[in-house]
Amino acid sequence: MASRNSAHSKPGKRTKPGTRPIRKWSKDIKTESTFPPKGTFTRPGDEVARIMARKRVSPGGLGSAIRMVQLFINRAGRTLSPARRRELEKAKRILQHRRAQSHR
Question: Is the dihedral of CA 36, 38, 42, 48 positive or negative?
Answer without folding.
Answer: negative
